[in-house]
Known about the structure:
Strand content: 15-25%
Bound molecules: zinc ion
Radius of gyration: 17 Å
Amino acid sequence: MTTLYDTHAHLDYEDFNPDLVQVVERAAAAGITRIISIGTDLESSRRAIQLAERFPGVFAAVGWHPCHAFEAPEDFRPMLRELARHRKVVAIGETGLDFHHLPSGKPGGTADDDVRYKQKQTATFRQQMQVAAELGLNCIVHQRDALEDVLAEMRPFEDAVRGVFHCFVNNASDMKRVIATGSLVSFTGIVTFKNAQSVRDTVLATPLDRFMLETDCPYLAPMPYRGKRCEPAYVKEIADLVAEVKGCPLAEIGRVTCENAAKFFPKLPPA
Ligand SMILES: [Zn+2]
C-alpha cells in the first residue's frame, strides 16, 4: 500500500463528531499515515492540538483564517506562540488573505469596510508570519483573489518562512510565481472534478518536488464522493488522479509528496 499524507484537514469541525474514530481508522486503512488538522481560530487551533494528542497519526497547525480576521485579537501573537510550541504543532495557519467576499458585497457594507477588512486580514497574516519565523515553522496559506498581496506580504519573511498555497486552483503561471519564492502548492479533490481541466494542467506543470496533497475535508470530496462529506482517506483518490495526470506510478506520487511534506514541516516525523 502506498503511504500518503493529508496535509490539510479540518478534523475539529463538528461534521466529524459522530464518527471521528472511524474517520481516522479509515484514513490509516487507506495508507494515509499523517493527517494535519488545521486551526482556523484560537478555539479551533486548541481543538486541533487536542486531536493531535489523542491520535498518534494526527498533527496540528495553529492559526487564524483570514475570513475570520475581524474576530481576531489585536495582538494574536502571545497566544499563538504558546500553542505553536506544542510538540505536535507542525505549522502556522491557516493564514493568508481572502479578498473574494468583501463587506461591500453584503447589505450595508461600504468601501471603507473593505479597506478595514483587508487591513485586519493583513495585520493578522503578518503576526502569524512573525511567529512562524521566530519558531522556525512554515505557514499554511489560504489565498483567494489576493495572490499579489500575499506574495508581497511574504517577501519580507522570505528567508525565514515558506508557505504552502493550499487548495491551489490557479493557473500554471501563478504556480511558477509561487514556487519561485521557495513556497509549495497543494492540491485537493478539485483535481478530480470534470470541469477542473485547468487545475489538472497546473498539476501537470508543477515539478514533483514542489507540491503536496490534501483533502481540505470536510469540504471538496473528490470523485466519486463529490458533494458528500470529505475525509482524509480520500487523499488516495486525489493521489490516483495526480498519478494519472503526471503519468507516473502512484508509489512515486506517494514518495515525493511525503518527502516534500517532511521537508516543509520540520516537526513532522516520517511515517
Ligand atoms: Zn482549510
